[in-house]
């Protein structure tokens, strides 16, 4: 017998929607194409960008969280990650488009895991992995929302998004300390996973 929460409310050609879940029949628009590696690099970046934005409805149903996710993705595609990494970890490596695309693919896989629902009967540890990804993404978006609300002035934008001075241990303004610790932890996690969170 199917529980009331799993009985279809709406059935369309593209999805089955219940009171709690939406099952999309075609996952193609959310995943990378099979010939992704043969596509020119400038198109690969555009494809990654589109895939991240197509996952937006799965991140949350709340508009505040969706807008935080949107701003986060936009900032990630604009940021000078090589400079951010150099200031935070002291690793001076020239930017590489191949490395950026590879980390983008891994980050897309991470976000896809974070928003995926797994069958609980035959998960073989996938459920725990997805739950960890979901919690990390939720934490990152919470910090991103807090950052956008608390730091609105142009000077603060310069510090947080362009010069990354707050990542330097000599930067002594107290209101940036927790952000520095958080962002350095995320950069170290990126080094471990090969992502660009």
Task: Give a verbal description of the structure.
- This is HFR040Wp.
- This protein has helices spanning 41-54, 56-59, 63-78, 81-89, 97-115, 126-150, 154-163, 177-193, and strands at residues 10-11, 15-17, 22-24.
- With 197 residues, the chain is mainly alpha-helical.
- It has one domain (39-193).
- Strand 1 (10-11) and strand 2 (15-17) form a beta hairpin.
- Helix 1 (41-54) packs parallel to helix 5 (97-115).
- The longest helix is centred in the C-terminal third of the chain and has 25 residues, at 126-150.
- The model has no long low-confidence stretch (mean pLDDT 88).
Radius of gyration from CA coordinates: 19 Å
Unreliable residue stretches: none
Let me know the number of strands. Answer: 3
Strand content: under 5%
* Whole-number tally of structural domains: 1
Distance between the termini: 41 Å
Major sheet strand order: 1-2-3
Outline: globular
Biggest sheet statistics: 3 strands, antiparallel
Order of helices and strands: EEEHHHHHHHH
Mean pLDDT over the full residue set: 88
The protein's oligomeric status is: single chain
Q: Helix fraction?
A: 55-70%
What is the SS-derived class? mainly alpha
How many individual helices?
8
Protein name: HFR040Wp
């Amino acid at each position: 017998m199917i529980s009331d929460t799993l009985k279809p409310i709406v059935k369309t050609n593209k999805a089955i929607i219940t009171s709690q879940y939406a099952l999309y029949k075609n996952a193609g628009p959310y995943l990378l194409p099979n010939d992704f590696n043969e596509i020119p690099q400038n198109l690969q970046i555009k494809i990654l960008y589109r895939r991240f934005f197509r996952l937006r409805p799965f991140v949350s149903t709340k508009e505040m969280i969706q807008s935080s996710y949107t701003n986060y993705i936009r900032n990630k595609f604009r940021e000078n990650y090589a400079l951010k990494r150099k200031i935070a970890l002291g690793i001076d490596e020239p930017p590489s488009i191949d490395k950026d695309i590879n980390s983008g693919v891994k980050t897309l896989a991470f976000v896809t895991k974070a928003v995926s629902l797994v069958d609980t009967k035959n998960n073989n540890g996938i459920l725990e992995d997805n739950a960890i990804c979901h919690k990390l993404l939720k934490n990152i978006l919470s910090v991103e929302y807090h950052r956008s609300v608390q730091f609105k002035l142009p000077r603060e934008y310069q510090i947080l998004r362009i010069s990354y001075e707050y990542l330097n241990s000599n930067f002594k303004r107290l209101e940036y300390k927790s952000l520095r610790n958080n962002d350095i932890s995320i950069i170290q996690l990126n080094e471990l996973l090969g992502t660009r969170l």
